Each structure stands twice: as C-alpha cells, then as structure tokens.
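Lab manual, section 2.4: Encoding a predicted structure.

Procedure: take the sequence of the chain (357 residues), apply the prediction step described in section 2.3, and record the output as structure tokens. A sample record is shown.
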Amino acid sequence: RLGADALRRLADLEPLHKTYPDKETYLKDVPRLIIERNIHGVDIDPRAVQIAGLSLWLRAQKSWQAQGLRPGERPQIRKSNVVCAEPMPGDRQMLEEFLETLRGEKLEALMRKAWHVPADQKVRATPQMADALAKLVRTVWQEMELAGEAGSLLKIEETLREAIATARKESEEKSPLFRVLEYGLNEPPKEKYVQVVAGEDQDFFDRSEVLVLAALKDYAEQAINGESYQRRLFAGDAIQGFDFIDLCRKSFDVVLMNPPFGASSLGSKDYITNEYPRTKNDLYSAFVERGLNSIGHRGRLGAISSRTGFFLKSFQIWREEILLKEARVMVMTDLGYGVLDTAMVETAAYVLQRSNL
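Recorded output:
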C-alpha cells in the first residue's frame, strides 16, 4: 500500500482536476510535461545536447500526431532539461566587475527577487553580506572551470554547501555578534527584516545558496549578452553554465548512463582522485558512484559500460563498497564485444537499486 503521503505535489501546483477540464486535455499535455519536468540529461558536447533536445521534440510531435492533433493544437514546449556541462561564460575579470557592482541597492534587489520577499518586508544588504556572497560566487565559478572535463562528476552542490559552512564559521570566529549585528536578526518587529521562515531565527547564510544561484544566473546572462541564445532549442532553456549547476542540485528516481571509460583527463585527474578515492581507477566506475548518489532511496540506476569492473581485482573496492553496500544488483548481462558501435570494448548492461543512504 502506498499510504496517504506517497504522492505529493509542490505547494504551487494545483490538483490535476483543477488544472485540466478533462482527461483528453491532460493527455494532450503529457508530452510537454515529460520534456519540461521529467527527463533530464547532461553531456560535455553541446552538439550532443542539441541533438538530444531535438530528438525529444520529435518524439513529442510524433505522439501528438498519433493523437490526431494539428500543429496549431499542440502545446508549446518552452524548455528542456538536457544541459551541457561547461564552464560559466566570460572570464575572471568580467566576474570581478560584476561582483563589484553587486552591492547596496542592487544586492537588495537580488535578495528580494531570489528570496521572493513580499513588498511590505524590508531587506538590508550590508558590506559584509556583499563580501560573503562574492566569495561564494567565486568558489562556484572556479569549480565550474572543470565542468568541460569532469562533466557530471563535478560535485557543485557539495562545493557550495561546504563553502557556505566555511563562510559561516569564519564570520562567527571574526565576531560572535556578527550574525546579529550585521544581518538584522535583532531588529525591532516594526522593521520586519526578512526571515527564511516567519517566526524562525534564520540568517543570511541559511538562504545564501539560492542567492548564490541567483547571482550566477544574473552574471551568466550579462556575460553572454545574447550570444548563446542561438544555441537554445527552446525559448525557456537555461543559460550557459547555470543550467548545469541547477541540474547538479537535483535528486532523481532513475538514472541511465553510458559513461566514458578509461583514465581521467589530465585537467580533471586531481579532482577525481580527491573526490572519488574508491572509484578513481576508471571513469565509468566513478560515474556509477556519482549516479547512485544522485538518486533517492530505492531509486534505480541503469548502465551499459565496460565489463571489467565485475571481474578485475583493481575494481574490488567498487564491487564491495558501491555495488554490494550502497546498491543492489537487480540484473546484469555480460554482452561482450560488438555492442558500442566501433568501440573495441567488452561491455555489460546492469541495473542497480540504491539501498543505503
């Protein structure tokens, strides 16, 4: 039995019977919903990303054609979630120029927008806030320099969380009263400084993650200045770099992959060695570890990769700690040669279920 809490919806989503007048209208919208809400993908090659997006669009058109819908009757697909793992646009100088302006009223406006602050609540941006935000943005921007080589192995979400924790600790060590005096937590009630949740004593750092993402989005839009719009298949697709960061923060029910195999590139070798000590010996084993960490409890991971991990002694840790402790092998097929086009590698296809969080 699923139970009363098995199926949930976001607070801003209406029940289906209020969103759609009848079943036919709902079924007509399903292809759009799948592309905009359900399917996500990542690649380091922008051409592959465009081809994947176009393929999804064609699948949707085929579905609507089968329903007998004329082109003018078909829902418009505004965005997809197939993204390119690539560095943020612009250079370091451009970033510093952007951060220099992110102070005072401009920072207050960003905070209000990112935090959805009601018009009747005050927001105050102090120099300390601006400095802390700039440092966090620099950290993520620098980490993104490896995106083109490490791809989805890049743990942007963990880097940001760790940077926020470090920034909070540093601010408290510099001044025990810093949080109260500079972030408006002891203001009289009439001042109505914004809190994360009404009635809770949460400060700037509690909400800084979403603020960093908002700042990076504004920076990316300013850096590209319309240049990369020609790369977008759908009008609502996110901008270069930012969309990959957003994807890294999500959790999935199912992950499918055909990961690269072999040694890591020179540019990403140190990062992968440090972040994936158990699976650093081959890229595909690291991708499997990363994929399992991206799904929830009892989520599924399906992969077709080199078969070596199931047999060689050098993959013993991967088998014992990843496949047998953090997951359960549901099915595995030893395929051998001749599966991956011209790639001369013996392959295996397998499905893992996440079992330990």
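Check your result against the sample. The first strand starts at residue 41 and ends at 43.
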